[in-house]
Amino acid sequence: MALFMVKDVTCEYRSEALGIGAERPQFSWRIESDRRGTQQSAYRLRVAGSDGDFGSPLWDTGRVDSEQSIQLSYDGPKLASRTRYYYQAMAWNQSGDPSDWSETSWFETGLLGSDEWTARWITPDPREIDPQSEASYLLRKGFALDKEIASARIYATAAGVYELFVNGEPVSEDLLAPGWTSYSSRLQYQTYEVTGLLRQGSNAIGIHLGDGWYRSGLGFEGKNFRYGEHRAALVQLHVAYQDGTEAVISTDDSWKAQIGPVLYSTIYHGETYDARRELTGWAGPDFDEDEWKPVEALDLKTDVLAAQENWPTRVTETIRPVASFVTPAGDHVLDLGQNMVGRMRFTVTAPAGTSIVLSHAEVLGQDGNIYFGNLRSARQQVSYTAKGEGAESYAPHFSFMGFRYVKVEGFPGAENGLPLDAFAGEVMHSDMEPTGTFECSDERVNRLQANIKWGQRGNFLDVPTDCPQRDERLGWTGDAQVFISTALFNYQGAPFFTKWLRDLKAEQHADGGVPFVIPDVIGGANSAAWSDAAVICPWTVYQYYGDRRLLAEQFESMKAWVEFIRAQGEQEYLWTTGFHFGDWLALDAKENSYIGATPRELVATAYYAYSARIVRDAAQVLGRTEDARRYGELHRHVVQAFRDEFMSPNGRMTAPTQTAHVLALMFDLAGEQVRGRVARDLNELIAENGCHLTTGFVGTPYLCFALSQNGYHDTAVKLLLQTSYPGWLYSVSKGATTIWEHWDSIKDDGSFWSDDMNSFNHYSYGAVGDWMYRKVAGLDMDAAVPAFKRIRIEPMFGMNKLTHARTSHLSMYGRIESGWGIENGKQIEVTVRIPANCTAEVILRGAAIADLKEGGQLVGTVEGIRSAVDTPTGAKLEIGSGTYRFAYENGEIFRNRYNADSKLEELLADEAAAGVLQRHIPQALTGPAIHFVKKLSVQQVFENPMSAMTEEQFNAILSDLAAIG
Known about the structure:
This protein has 965 residues and is of the alpha+beta class. Helix content is 25%, strand content 28%. The chain is globular and about 85 Å long.
């Protein structure tokens, strides 16, 4: 019997979602089938109440004839707070065969109304404990439960960051809760299931409270931004008894407070911990709290509280040091072998009062000493004082560091070498599910892919930061928008960006302006490409996950940003005013400038057009017809204004920079008549620069796409494989294990770029990953159908450079794979995996249907292949779900198609040749040669006035064309 089942059923992206705040949660599932071409034709979803009785469900869709299997919104009776609900799904395939019901999953609501908070915000009484104290606070409450317990939940948050304990045990593995949001507008709370930690009789709750982002002092250049001066906690425990009654224990003025062993902790500078001040059992029920101090209730808001949205921050991996050594300066240093973000844990046996200091850094200097210069004012230092009672283990509670190397001072016995087994690096970031892989025949590129993922892990710690080590670590909008597609391919980032985009909307100014960083702690706003994150990021989340709810939620914010731009220009359709970062860190910048040579008004207007287009497309998705018409018209006007201002009628860019050409191509600002000219000029600019890029933050993410999509894929691959400066593999050749902020953060002679701005973990240039997955390995989506419901597979083989490439992505529908390999320069094999309930267009370059085989059979007889046709590019197939293995010979025609590229480009660069070709295309071009005409958009070039050409020149052209066709 054929396999057909519903699996991986989720609510709000989680299979067991505890403490959600959505009143109409969204459900999704995947389908598993062992038959090719499986499609869902109908579904049924049912939700049961807390009794789990599906015989009398709370909501039952009944059979719904639809292919929809993701983002199905709950449409039953109003959900109650603090209630667990159970759900199941089933489906029918295209033959009408039903699946069984899926396994039962559950979700549980949190506190859905602010009026349900009866707890009070508490902090130590300022008459007893200095509110400006840098030491952490310990807060506790002992209480009794006099009946048999059925279940218990804690709802908790803090103005600061907290660790929560019940009867001395931590309630979760979460770190740095409640995370960083725009605290004045939105503050997350967490829900914890604590039934197993409570008991009938005496109990206690303990809270360890630190500064975190709330009070650490954030920003650079002396800004030292703080959200408030008083750390505080808010906790509400609900205990349901077996007899149906309930007890509620909340923070109020009956709690007690004391100073904790963390004497100092901040985000930038690290932590100071005195183990001698530890209070054994302080969070347990039998602890003597007579010496503890009273607390006071604060009048902080509860109407800003929101249920946890983001993935929690956790330790996701442990790394042991690979070496220890003594530097020329005499420092004892550990090498983790990987630039990482998180904390060091160590175990030590030492006399009481022994001071151990750990100082964290990313690289070693030219002289072999540990290098701290790029940290600026951030100290990244941990100081620990031993209590002297045997082996003791410690890791920081309320800080994190970006580092590979650790200078260790004061560790007993270090003169004989640091014991590697006493230390471990604990990798911390938002605990996102990995969803993407990439691997190819060049191990240097595989290292680059690893660096991209490590850079994302290090900088996706609750917010998408620019860097994790210096006195910054801010949610820069520009970095987030250029990297978001790469990020969402590699990791499940929907909750991560949902939370961050809600903060962006909350921080957006009344006039529609958008700050440079979210949450905003530096005050600047309204730069093109940076503030456009308000439009680009929600649209990209929609493309990956099909989340129309988030798109609708952000739509007014998206519109407001575009309207802000419209209001700024001296001309309505150009943006030529205000401050802009431009092509930040581009290599064609003037001396002593970070801003590239591409005119900032060109960059600003290009993004104006791009954002207007996205708003138009979002309006169409949401059924907002008038908005779609209005922004479609705006887009047309801005595109025309861009062409009039920044391009000649023949397609020459007024700014002779790589980035100017890239933006014109990628944002469809170059009309079809001149697109070939713009692409050719871009290719020539790169060739003239020794096949090196000059692009910065704006141009680099799109550079390889602009080349590959316009006939110059070989150039794009050459750029990828460039090992000399500037190039992606330059940093790899220097031993990088994350992405650098600058192409030459470490120079050839081992010296550094300026200390002022030289992060060795800065993910922006890792946006090349998006191109690697989509073009090199060939796994892409149909932009008109979100979430990879319709997939596009078109590997672009890097002839004579790469011999294989493979990628995979775990989409909302299931795992997608695309891989190819070439053996002996002749046999090409392409492997494709399409999940059930999806279809794909597969383009196999150079293949002919008559000779193309799948699994050893000619494709015309293969199950799952819906259609197969020859095109000038190669074979185009329409396929259903399943795994396919295509094979074909790399014949002479196929080789000619690639080898002829450079010759044709040379011929077509001659305007005289273009004129003659216009007259003779019908006779001269036949068969495969037509592919090049289309590929290089020659037909548009031919609209130029014809030029004279000698018969000898023309015959030479015909000879070249005959060799192709």
